[in-house]
Structures are given as C-alpha cells and as structure tokens.
Design brief:
The protein is mainly alpha-helical. About 65% of the residues lie in helices and about 5% in strands. It contains twelve helices and six strands.
Amino acid sequence: MNLAYIPSPSTGVIHLGPIPLRGYAFCIIIGVFVAVWLGNKRWIARGGKPGTVADIAVWAVPFGLVGGRLYHVITDYQLYFGEGRNWVDAFKIWEGGLGIWGAIALGAVGAWIGCRLRGIPLPAWADALAPGIALAQACGRWGNWFNQELYGRATDLPWAVEISDGPNRVAGTYHPTFLYESLWCLGVAALVIWADRRFKLGHGRAFALYVAAYCVGRGWIEYMRVDEAHHILGVRLNVWTSIVVFILAVVYLVLSAKLRPGREEVVEPDRGPAASDPETKDGAEGETQGEAKDGAAEAKDPADGESAPKTDAGAGAKSDVKAEAEAASAEATEDAGTADAEAPKTAKKL
C-alpha cells in the first residue's frame, strides 16, 4: 500500500453560479501571462519598446491555441471520430488536449503576422519570448493534474499521483509525467536565460535552444506515458516528433551561428509619427524641400556669403552692356534725324 502520494482534485471545474471555472483553462491563462511578462522584460532589455511583446502575442496566442488543438485532434483522431465517439468533442478544448508542436508551429505564423505589422524581426522576438514559453508550459502542465490525464506507468514512489476511477482510466497511483515535464520546462527556461546571457544568443538561437532542450526532456517523458497514442515502428508518434524537431533545432543553431554570428543591434526600429503617418511624412518632406529652397535663395542673395561679389560683378557687367547698347541706339537715331533734315535742302538746290 502506497502511504505517500500526490492527491488529485476530485473535480477540475468549480461552478460560480452558471459560470464554470476550469482549472485547465486557468493554468493556460496563467502561463500566457507569465510568458508575456517575462518576454516583455527581456524585449525591453534588448532595446525594444514596452508593450510590443503583448501586441504580437494578441496574434500568436489564438493561432497557437488553434494549432495546438488541431495537432491533438489530428494525431489522436480516434478519440473523436472513432466508433462510438462524438466529433463535437473535438471542439471541447477545456477538457484537455493541446499539442505543443502544433501550438508552436501555428503560433509562429501568428507571431510572424504581428511582427510584420510592427516592422520587427521574428527571430529577435522569439528569442525574447523563448524562456517565457517554457515557463508557460510549466504552468500549463498542471492543467493535466486538474483533469487527471497524461500520467505515466503505475508506481508506488512517494511522489506518485493518485488517479481516481473514471472514463478511460483506472484508479491507482502513477508516475506524474505532467509534473516531470513541468519541472523540466522550468530547467529549460533557466538554461535559456543563462545561455543567452553567457553567449549573447541572437537571430533566433535562444528560441532554437529552447526547442532542442525541450525535445530532449519530452522524448524520455513520453516513454513513460500510458495514454493512448499512435506508434511508428513501435515508438510513440510524439517521440519521433521530438527527435525530428530536435535535429532541426540543432542544425539551425549551428548554421545560424556561422552565417549570422552575434546578436541584433536593433530589434525594433524607431517608428515615429513621421515614419508611420503618410500625411505627417508628406508634411515633413515639404518642410525639408522648403528649407532646401530657402537655403538656395540665401546662397543667391547678394547681401550674404561669399557669393555676393560674384553676383554684384555679374549684375554690373550686365548693366554696362545695356548702357552701351542704349547709347549706340541713341546716336543712330540722331544720325538718322540729321540725314532726314538735310535731305529737303539738297533737293531745293538741285
């Protein structure tokens, strides 16, 4: 008989009148807030602006939730579309079932959209958020405790979790794999923070380190789980996924370090009103052009600068030429008048 174990809650939901308050949802929400809080601090420390992480999270979180649910439903479709199953249950996300692989993949798409709108590089944002994501997972795994799911093989260890009898489960004490993963994620967060400070990781390498480290722990924890899952060559699907994603993350780390060493100097370009507002931008350009014209006029002004003598000399030369031309014209007119006056006299003499 096991004398020491971790008790499970009798229910995962508390009703506040007609409103159900679910422990699973609370764990996810707390995880999101922790990730955004830590990500914001790291973003500001790298030269970013306060609030940017939260603005992009508005895109990333919904995409991530949809992606996580899609991955779970696709890889465990027999739970929703098998014989005697109700496909409507696929939409009951509060009952558990989020795949981290799908959450990260589709969440990255949402983050990319948010980063494009803000004009910042996605890898830099991902680096700032990486340890926060690990902490969010550490919080979220406790939602499995509320739902009494994702436990391992039976054991009588003092830290075993007690599972009560219910649908698809047998009462007993089991390895608390959700707890193992939660603790592992805490270690991953600490590793990423330390490595980022020590090696000045940039261009997405802090995020890649988080992915690689998480995959290592997820691989061995997955072996201990007894929940229903698909197998390939006798190995659980999520173990294969961990292996593939781990290799991709390590390859990215190596190639990125060679191609783009160091860290980004600017993670969020200054986007003032002149850069974001077209009318303000046009006004600024008009003022600049006006200042340029005024400068040119001042340069031509004979009262200023070294160009004055050149301008005066030119004006004087033009005035002399004009005066000579007028004098020559006047002489020609007088000569013509004299000739006209003498012409009648000559005619009379003849």
